[in-house]
Structure formats: C-alpha cells, structure tokens
Amino acid sequence: MDLQKIIPYRKMSLKELLIPENKFMAFVAVALTALFLIGVGIYLVHGHHAYGVTRQHPWGLLIAVYIFFVVSSTGLCIVGSFGDVFGFKDYMSVSKRAIFGSIVTILAGFAVIAFEIGHPVRMMIYNVLSPGLTSAIWWMGTLYGIYLTFMIIEFIFLVRNDMKRAKVAGLIGLLVGLAAHSNLGGVFGFLNARVVANGVFYPTYFILTAFITGIYLIFLMYGYKYRGQDFPSDIAKALTNFMKIQGLLLAILMFFETWKMLTGVYGGMPERADVIMHILHTKSFWLGEVLCGMVIPFVLILATKGSAIKKMVWASFIGMIGIFYMRYDLVHDAQLFPMQTLKIREYQLPPSFVEYFPSSTEIMIGIGGVGICLILYYLGTKLFDLDTMPEHH
Amino acid sequence: MARYGMALDYKNCINCKACEVACKEENGILLGADKHRIWVGVKEIEGEFPLLSIASNTFMPSQCQQCDNAPCQEVCPTHATYYDENGVVRVDPDKCILCSYCMNACPYDARYVDDRTVTVDKCNFCSDTRLARGETTTACQATCPTKVRIFGDLDDPESELSQVLREREHFTLKTHLGTEPKLFYLI
Amino acid sequence: MAVEISRRRFLQGSVAMTVVGGMAMTPSNLFSKEKVHGEVSITTKTGTGKATLVPTLCEMCVNKCAAMARVENGVVTKLDPNPMFPKSRNMLCPRGNAGIQELYDPDRLKYPMIRIGEKGEGKFKRVTWEEAYDAILNGTDKFPGLAKILDEEKDNRSSIFFCAGEGMAEHTFKIFYEGFGSSNWLNHASLCLRTVVSGYGVTLGAYPMADLENAEYIIMAGANRAEAIVTPDTMDFFKRTKGRGAKLICIDPRFTNTAAKADKWFPIKPGTDLAFVLALSYVAVMEELYDKAYVEKYFRDFNKYKNHLYAEGYTPEWAEKITGIPAKEIYQIARDFMKHAPKAVYYPGRRSTFAKNDFQLRRAMAIFQALGGGIDTEGGLVFGKKLPLKGHETVAPMYAQAQGVDVTRAKSKPGYDDCAIVSGGGSWIAFRNRVLEGRSVYPIRGMFLYKHNPMMNMPNSAKTAKFLKGLDLNVVIDIMPSDTAMYADVILPECTYLERTDPVKSFGGPEPSIAVRNKVIDPMYETKPVIEILRGLTEKISKPLFEITKKYDEDVQDDIANRGEEEVYKDFDLTIPFRHSQEELNEHAVSDYPGAYEALKKHGVFYPKMEEYFKQVSVNEHRYYPDEAKAYSVAGGKPKTPSGKVECNLKSMARKGVDPMPTWRKEYEYSVPEGKFRMLTGRHAQFTQSGTANNAMLHDLIHENYIWINKRVAKKMGIRFGDLVEVSSSAGKVQIKAYPTEKIAPDQVFFIHGFGEESEALTWAYRSGGNDNAIIEDVVEPVYGGAAMHETNVAIRKV
Question: Which positions ≥6 away from C491 have C-beta within 8 Å?
Fold first, then answer.
C-alpha cells in the first residue's frame, strides 16, 4: 500500500524531518515530552497514588488538561469548518491548518486521559461490549472517537485537495464533534449531586468556549508561523474577521458568566451559593479566567476595533492561559463541595471545601501533553502542506 | 430474588465504629483513611463550653444508600456498576475502567478506589461474602453493639424491615435528588 | 529488639495470608500531597467455601464477649458475635472485630528470649524454652537467677513479686504465685477499679451490676459507656436513651459520646462528684423523697447519716459552688431520681480512681442508690446469680522464711503505711515507690510479670522505668514487645487468646451463664498458653527451689525429719496445678452440669435450660431467659453485707483514720493555678489502653491521640488543630498534637490513655501520640492505695 496515495506528504529523510528550524521551540517540545514520559513512568509504578486525587476529589489536573485539549480540538474544528465546510471563502485559507490542529490537540488529549483512566484498554473493550448508554462519558468518548476518525478523513481529503469529500467528512466531523463536546459538558451537567455543575450551563458553555479557544489557537498558529513578518493578505483577512467574532464571543461569555454567578449566589442556597462565593474569592477565577481568559483579549479587541491582529497573537497566548484556568477551575469547582460533610474520624476538622493540588506527576503528564501536541504539530508542518488551498472547489 | 434494604435506628449509634471494622475484616477491605465502605459521621458540636448543644452531636452511621435510582449506575460508561438480582448496587471489577465518574456522581461519598484491583469499590451488603454463604445479616448489622441496623427484603411484606418501615417514621438521605435510597433512617 | 525482632520484618512462618501490597506499596509522598496512611493491609476477605466456626471469648478488653471465629485453611478470617452469650448480647465492638490483627501482628513476641544488652535497652537473643527456663533458675552473665536470689535472701519468697493484668488466665498465673509463696501480688486493681469495688463492697456487701435494660432514670457520672464499652450495659441502654424509655443524666467534665446520648449533660469540676452525690442525698433525705420502707428495713445508722448531711450543710447551694452544677438542677435530679426509684440507677461504673476521695464517693453513691430502694431489684442495682464451678488442685505451701506485706503497720516505721487498707491486689504505685525509695522492709529482687504493662499503665513512667531497671530478675510473659517487655531479662512469649483454651468462667448477673474461650487455631511460632509455660517452668524450678527452702526453712527441716522428704515435697511441688491440660480442668470445673462441657465446646456458652430458654426474637435480638427466670432480685432487696444492712457509718474505718461516713473535705476542692490545666485521661471505643496500641486495624482508625484543649483558649495561645504541643508536669513531659474543641473546659485538657509507647519493636504504636502516664503524677489514694489519675496539673506550650 502506498501511503503517498492515501495522503500526499512531503518526502524527506529522517534527518531532515528531525531538524527543526526553531531550536527554542524544539527544545520546549522535547523537554515537555520528556516530562510527560517521566510522569507516565512514575504513574506506571505507583498508579493513582502518584496523583493528588482523592476519594473526595477523584478528578484532577489530567481531566482538566484533557478537557483543555478537546476543547481546543473542537474549537479548531469549528474554526476550520468556516472555510471548507461552510464555504466562506475568507476563511478557506486557515481550514487545513485548523483541522490539522484539531487532530493533534485531540490526540494530545487522548494521550493525557489514557493515564487518568485507570484501565484505558479495558475501556475500549467494554465501551463496545457493554455500552452504558445513560453515561455522558460513554457518549463523549464514543463520539470523540468517531469525531477523530472524521477529522482525519477530512484532513486527508483536504491534503488531497478533494474539497467535496472534505466538506462531507468535515460536516459530519463537526456535528459529531459538537455532540461530543456538549456531552463533555453533559458529563458535568448531569451531576445532580454537584449543584454548581448541574444543569444546562456547561454543555452550552463548552461549545461557546470551544469556539473562543479555536480562535485563540488559530492566532497562535499563524502568529508563530509568521513570527517577525507580516501575515499574507488572505490570512490577515481571516484573522481580522476572527478577531471581531472573538469580541462578540467574549462578550457573550462574560454575559454567561455574570449570570451564572448571579443566579448562583442569589438567595444564598446552601452548597450552590457557598461554592460560588468560594469561587468568587479565588485568584484563579479573577486573574486566570476573567483577566487572562476574557478581559485582556476583549479590551484589546475593543481598543483596536478588532484590527491589531499581531497584538492579538499575544493576547491569544494570554487568553489560552485563561482558558486553561477555566478548565482547571471547572473540574475543581464541581468537586469543591464535599458530599460527606460529617466528621468520620476522631481527630479531624469538620470537612469544608475539598482541597486539591496536582502532584508533580500530574503536572509532568499534564504539561507534558503540550509537548506531545507541539511535536505532532511540528511533524505535521514538516510533512504536509498546511497552507496552499485550491482557488475554488 | 429480593429487594434488599436496610433500616437504621441511628439514634442507637454510639459512634464506636464496630461496623466499619467488621466490614473491613469481612470483606477484606484495605486499611487507609479513604478506604472504607461504611462510616459513622458526626457534626462538629455547636455552642460554647459549657453551653453545648447535645442535639447537634448526633451520630450518623452510613454507607452506600443502595439507591433504586442510582446516579453511579446511570453514569457508568461500561455497566461495571449494575443492579444485581436483589437490587443491590454492585461493581464488576472486570468491567470497571476507573474513570471515577461514579465517585463524582455519588451524592453520598460512598465509593472509593480499591488499590488491589485498581477499580472502584463500595458497599454491596456483603453480597459476595455473607449473603453468598446463605447468611441473612450483613457484617455491620451483626456486629453492632446497639443494633442500629435491620437488613432485609423490602419486597417481603412480612420481613422485619418491611414491618418496621410500616410502623415507624423514617427518612432517607438527599431524597430530593431522586436517588430513591434503600437505606432508611428511623426516627 | 535489635537481634531477634526486626520491627520491619513482616509475617513469617507457615501462615498463608493475603498480605496486600505490603510495604512495597508505600506510595511516595514526593509525588502526592495526600498524606499516606495505613499503607499495609492484612485483612482477609471471607470466603464462601469450607470453614470451621469456633466459639471463643474475646480478649481485646476485659469484657469477654462471645465470638465465633471463622477459620478457613487454618487462617482466622473473621470474628463474628456469638449470639448465645447473655452478657455480650450478640455483639462485637471495633476492638473485638480487630482481634484478628492481634493474632497476625507481625511484631508479636514469637520466641523465648533472654537479655544480652543493658536492662531496658531492648537487646535480646532468641533461645529455646529450655534455655529460657534455665536462665530464670540459674541466671546468665547478665542477671542472677531465682536460685541465687533466693539463696541470698534465705528463701524469703517475698523478695520476688508477681504482677498480672486482668484476664481469664490471670487465675492460672496466680496459682503459680500462690505456690511460689511470695506475699507480694500486684494486679491491675489499684490502677483500676479498686476503690469502686471496695466502696460498694463495704457499703452494700458486693459490687453490683446495673440493670440498664429496665432502668428508667440513669445518672451516669464519671462513666462513659459509649466509649468505654461494658457489656451488657452499653448495649442495654443506648437503645433506650433519647426519649425512648431511659432518661440519662450525664455528669462528666468533658463532653463525651455518652454526653451526646444524654438528656442533660453537666460538666462537673473534676474530683467533686462526692459533693454532688452528698447534695443529692441531702435533697432526698430532707425532702423525705427516699424509700422509707426500704430505709427502715435495710439501713444501718440512717439517722446518723441524715444528721451528718444536715450538720455538714450538704445543700445543693453548697454543692453548686464546689461542683459548678446549678443548685436547681441538683434539686431536680434528686427529685426525678427518687420519683423513678427503684427503677433509677446512679451508675456505679468501673474505672480508675480519679480523685483522692474516690472511695468516699463510691460509698455516697451506694447509699444514695439505696435511699431510693433500687437495690437487688429490676431496673436498679442487682446482685444476680452466679453458676458455681468446681475447683481444682492447687498447692499453697507454707514458707517460714517468706515475709509478709504488712510487716509493720506503725506509721513511724517503714513498711506498708501508704494507705489505710491493704487489699488483695496491693497498691502498685505505693509498692513501686517504696522499693524505689528504699523503704521496703526487705529487698525486692525480682518479678514475674504476666500480661501487664506498668510502663504504660501506671502514673509516672519515669519512676517505673527506674524501678524496673533496679530489679535483678524480670521475667515477662506477654504477647507483645511492650515498653515493659523491654526491661525484661527473660521474655516468655504467650500465644494470643485465639490460640489457647482458657479457664472456663462463670458470669453472674440476672442472666447467669458459663462461658469458655476455646482455642481457635494452634499457637503460632513458638508461643504457648500460660498454663503450658508454667508447666515447663515449674518442672524446671520446683525441685531446685525446694532445695533452698530445705536449706533455710527450719519448719521444713523438722517436717522432713518427721514425714520424710518425699512426703513433704508433695506440699511444695509447684508442678501439681499445671499437670492437667486446660481442657481437662475445664471439663472437671463444669462436671456438675450435665451436657455443659459439650455445650461449651459447641456453643461456647452454657446455662441450665439453655436449649429451652434461648431463642431468637428478632433479626437482632435474642432471649436468654424468660422474664420470670431472670434473677433481678435474689434476696428481696437485702444488701449482701454481713449485717444485711446498708452500711452508712463504718466504725472500723474510723479506726484506720478513714471517714466512717462520706464527708467532704476542704482539700478535695478543685483548683488549677493560673496558666495551668488539669490533666484528664480516659478511654475510647476503638482503643483498650496500651494492649491494643499496636493493632493495625485500630491504629488505622486512630493513628495517634490528640490533646483536647478548649477552642477559645487554644486560639488565645495560638494553637491550631494538629499543632504539636508539649505537655509537662513534675513527672515529665510529652509532645502531642492539639485538638481544639469546645467539649472541654478552659482550664482542663484531656487525651486518651494507651498511646505513645517507646518500644521500637512496635511498628504501629512506637511513638504514636503521647503517653498520659509520662505526665500524670503519682498521687496515692489514701484508703486503698489506688493511683489517683486526675490530680495532676500540667503546663502547655506550643512546640
């Protein structure tokens, strides 16, 4: 079988493939991947004991990082679909790169979650043999699997310049992706016992923030690619449009968040108001989520009327830090309120908000996932032409 | 075929934790702060010495509530958590992938990770130990000094459990979540 | 224990056990913030296959509850309650359930050992049983043996003392003591319930039980039945508290789990219960609420007592100032109590002596109880019945050279003048101090110690250490390398209760029964039951010691001249009591009851008509006797004193300088110097003193004890939960973590007894928490020489 026939790639020697043009980024990527491998090694020896997760806080950093990656993936899928699926010509030039980005991010997400799920292989077997159809995790996992398949198919067609088939695959991928992603929101939304997470908020919020994340990432990808030089006009045009869309999206997000917090504290309902008040007293919410994730990019967009696309690259970097905090906080906040509020040991303080801080192993695997993402992205940029798009289809 | 449940005369409880130890010894539960299927909870006492609130210092023996509509079962992606033929919510360690979703979904903090199988474990009413041997009590019930627990078949109207639930007022925990617990606290 | 017992050495031998994870699983704290606890598990899941069930009796505390041991492939996998025993009513507490961990404790004493290092250093070498016995008789280069000591002491058998903790085989050990001929026998009583047993004994003629199954009104003062479990009391009445038939008044300086079950809780000032009881009695008498018919019939010197109460002015208003309990509440309690009497109980309790006035307190309690007529009656205090057992052969030779305990009673001369009355179990603390201070009339050279841990159980551990170091020959029989075992010269490892049959025992009460501890599995390692240990030991030492007696004892020399040595030796043959197996002795003991021995083997329990009477009445409850057959009343209310009366005024006591009637004295008043705290100690449901300190399962429930300190005081001192504090007194100091709580008064602190062992051979217990006896001062209760545990003021400082 000739791989070249399935997906055209640039032929090059291994040496050529492995010589990066940016030594610094290469070092970062390799170092992070090394951390990932060390973390995985520790995990394989010690199991979940190497993590900071507990009975009361079973989900930790790795779940947050997983969400971070799949949100990124869904976001890039949405962004990429503008051109090749919906046929908006202005965005066509970013489609291929975005779709490729969505593949590497979800692969990185899977790499991370594989070491959070206790038995990933067993999962694949029993996902099929005894599907839990009432489980949002089952739907989320299964749909993401299908999504990834269609993203790869879409990408293959894109690389082969078969825009018609790419469109079909892309549309299916997008729809499945949106379903998967809202199901990820549903994983939290279905938690009736966790009052801050429970309800309609997260499934919709996930789609919204995915879109935002996708735009941040498209800025980062092109910002990196055209570092120290001007954007080509077609890219500049797409980015300018995206910047304006981002302004609108951030406004909607702030509106969402405001009402979430207001309804959360109103009336002082036990558990819900307690947790919201707790959140409102954390730096990670105000500095991470609000300042980095929303305000700084939003102010830039407003102040420049959406024109400063070079500055927006940096704002997007800050925005992604904010996005990370959103993921981390949503996982943590959902588990903040203990389900057991009584003392069960002789000498213990009454249980209050559940504390969690990731262990070094979790941090290694978590940020190591970024390394995997970068390496995969690097290989993609080397092997595939992610820029040239046919004039029309 | 039965529908097992349990009534707890919780005011009898003296917080001695015989139940917790009996459970660990019977079911071979690991030691460790987080490794317990059952527990006794107590609130921090209210008031200042010497004007303390006796009423605030109630002991609440607890464990998996064996919900008829169990959130843990609903969220399980692989049916590792299932209702057995007696309505007992159980975990099949061969199917559990340790996604921990059930631990998050359980409103009662009744689940934990067993380090041997690296799967989620919980109270199963001694189904694979005592009940499997034909005994009619759980370890926690049998050992209790003040006889807090009455284990029995809710489907059998003649069972002592059914009788006591007909005769005495009782409540269930976090009823509003619709979990339909089969642990009943007698008032 | 450097040589033979590595404290990290895990289970060995042929026992097949699931050792899960073991130490290898120790998660590294480097990688996780979560504090790692209990990394070792030695629980075994019960199986569904073939199993043997052996009825036995628990020995995790003094209660002796009936258990059924499940044995699968030679491994004890579970201890379940045995429902047939009236005393324990189908239950096992957390400690009872954790008995398996005692059996499989990797730190257990496994082989006989003799000391090779300095005394107290904990260096031993493994020897054979024969070598150990030989070392006891002939000594080694490190310590002298019995032969040398007794020769030097001219056969004064009292130079060797014997001490034992409570237990079913204590009796077996005591037979050895009696044959040996020492007059120094020390048991746990003077560190425990001496004063309560004696106080009730001289007042009512016996230490009664409380019928908490039927009592309607219960005053529980200084007893904590929710945490210091006593069967059947604990089970009987907590089902009925909280407005369900039994009104409970809890009197305790701190808010205990018993207080949590009470209708009312009054934090009394420590050591002032006597004033409270006197005021209750005052109200009952002055308001004429007492049972006049009962008092008329069964009281002696009632009027004297009445006048005493009146003359001394023991009014509730007076008591309020002393106890801190409001006068109006005292009136109310007295009136309510008398209204419910005779179904009202002032609970006698069974605890250590807390204050110097404890004996008088017990007397006052007994008299107050009797004022309501609640003696020998349903719902009151009961004497019950006891099923008699047949005795067995012992030897009690007369050694002319053995000196007595009370060689002098004169106050000015050295001797046993530390307390007014010398009781059977002696006064441990007075004995120790007398030896230590050179006040002993004759040298005390050695000891035989069985199942006893004076390093942990007696106030002022520093003195105990010095005392033990000063002895020439310490023989320790125990199951664990306790702090005291570290001071041994010879260690004889006993097997645990699950590996031996103990003397059959009769349990009296309204529902009397006989129960036995049957051997569940064969002894592990080279351990033996004490009866076999003593069989081997006496075979070794009996003859040689008799030679010493022959040498110094003129009576014996004369006797031999008359009867011949062989005949005389029969009276001195220490091996006689240990010739039969425990099973044979038990069979003989119950031989008056047809079918009893078989029933004891099969059910662990026997009482006449058991087959007919015993039945299950609900999923949890059983009937042992029909109501009409219960012995609530055996003498129609008559006290068991020789006079048949309640003794209000003990003239014989007056002659010994003891108040003949309960009297409050100024020096009993509670006071704590500014900046200091009164140190309180006590029990916990998951812990039986130092005996369970190394139990992996229980240790998992409570890793270490914390010191209770009032929350607001702690805040002022900058002490937060878990902070390490140093607690010090004139006796010593300990470091312990703080538990700020409102459950204790601002001028008091408390922590559970039994933690903070210093023996490195104890994996779990070693230095976990603090040892209360390291800081409790050695205050001797003046009547029986009990150790008064709540008389110490301590200073606290954040470390």
Answer: C109, C112, C113, C114, C124, C132, C476, C478, C481, C485
Residue C558 confidence (pLDDT) above 50: yes
End-to-end CA distance of chain A: 28
Q: Which residues of A touch B80 (CB under 8 A)?
A: 126
Consecutive H or E run containing B81: strand B81-83
Q: Tell me, what's the pLDDT at A391?
A: 56
CATH, domain range A53-339+350-356? 1.20.1630.10
Contacts of A332 in chain C (CB under 8 A): none
Is residue C15's pLDDT more than 50? no
* Size of the A and C interface in Cβ pairs below 8 Å: 40
Max distance between CA atoms of chain A, in angstroms, equals 74
Question: Closest approach of chain A CAs to the CA of B158, in angstroms?
Answer: 34
Looking at residue C418, what is its pLDDT?
81
Decide if pLDDT at C39 tops 70: no
Give the confidence band of A47 by pLDDT, cuts at 50, 70, 90. Answer: confident
Give residue C403's pLDDT. 87
Domain boundaries, chain C: 113-192+390-583, 212-384+647-655, 671-798
C255 in A contact zone (CB under 8 Å): no
Phi, psi values for residue C743, rounded to 5°? -80, 5
Q: Over the stretch A150-183, which tens digit does the pLDDT of each residue have?
A: 999 999 999 998 999 999 999 999 999 999 999 9
Domain C212-384+647-655 class in CATH: alpha beta
Which chain B positions have a beta carbon within 8 Å of C621's beta carbon? 147
For A43, nearest residue in chain C (alpha carbons): C31
The answer to whether C220 touches C251, Cβ cutoff 8 Å, is yes
The position carrying tokens 């109501």 is C627
Report cis status (omega within 30 of 0) of the bond before A338: no
User: pLDDT digits over C384-440, tens only?
Assistant: 999 999 988 888 899 999 988 754 454 555 566 788 887 888 899 999 999 999 888
Give the domain B4-186 fold: Alpha-Beta Plaits (3.30.70)
| CATH top class, domain C113-192+390-583 | alpha beta
Mutate to test the interface with A, among C28, C29, C34 (most CBs of A within 10 A): C34
B 25-64 residues inside an 8 A Cβ radius of A: 33-34, 36, 39-44, 60
Best probe of the C interface among A42, A61, A62, A346, by most C CBs < 10 A, is A346
Q: Is B144 on the interface with C (CB under 8 A)?
A: yes
Please tell me the distance from the alpha carbon of residue A368 to that of residue A114, in angstroms, as a whole number: 13
Model ipTM value: 0.96
Contacts of B151 in chain C (CB under 8 A): 619
Architecture of the domain whose range is C671-798: Beta Barrel (2.40)
CB contact under 8 A, A50 and C27: yes
